Amino acid sequence: MRCVQGSKIGLCLVLGLGLAGNAWAKRNYGMAGCGLGSQLMGPSGGQISAATTNQSSYSQAFGISSGTSNCLPSKDMATVMKQEQFLAANLNTLQKEMAQGSGATLNAFADLLGCPANVQKEAIDTLAKGYETIFKAPGIEGVLDTAKDELKKREVLKKECAIVG
């Protein structure tokens, strides 16, 4: 989408939120982020209203610092950001290795998801079996959330892996 100078900014913002909305569908919040607005509007509700609510009530700043209102505590958010950065830098290699069921990047990804050595093989096998589902998800966030969901389906991995988010 291209919004040129002189076009209606509100329309460009609304269209941009609509196009990006699918990547955020599995999160508890939408493009407006966490806060009271995310609880009232949900991840697919009116994101302009959610952002306005967050801004006017200062709930996003409070939620981030306290880990409430759909916001992750700072430590967990830092972990999720590392996971997203890893995926962004290694997505092509990870996709190939996950399809093959082995590789150094896949091992590193399982480690980054908090899976200790005693369950890492099971985690890698689970990710490889979930390949189609994982890479069907749109965007980095979608791939990450779906990979975590696949691991959480296995009770031992849900228990052993320190999956954040």
From the structure above, extract its key features.
single chain; about 160 residues; mainly alpha; 2 domains; 10 helices; about 65% helix; elongated; disordered N terminus
Description:
The protein has helices spanning 9-20, 36-41, 47-57, 59-66, 74-100, 104-112, 117-129, 131-134, 139-152, 155-160. It starts with 8 loop residues before the first helix and ends in a 5-residue tail after the last helix. It is elongated. The protein is 67% helix and 0% strand. The chain contains ten helices and no strands. It has 165 residues and is mainly α.
Furnish the topology, listing elements before pairings.
Elements: H1 9-20, H2 36-41, H3 47-57, H4 59-66, H5 74-100, H6 104-112, H7 117-129, H8 131-134, H9 139-152, H10 155-160
Helix share bin: 55-70%
Radius of gyration: 18 Å
User: Residue ranges: pLDDT <50 for 5 or more in a row?
Assistant: 1-26
Number of strands: 0
SSE arrangement, N to C: HHHHHHHHHH
Please report the number of helical segments: 10
Query: How would you characterize the largest beta sheet?
Result: none
Secondary structure category: mainly alpha
Span of the ends, CA to CA:
30 Å
Tally of structural domains: 2
What is the molecular shape? elongated
Give the mean pLDDT.
76
Q: Name the beta content range.
A: under 5%
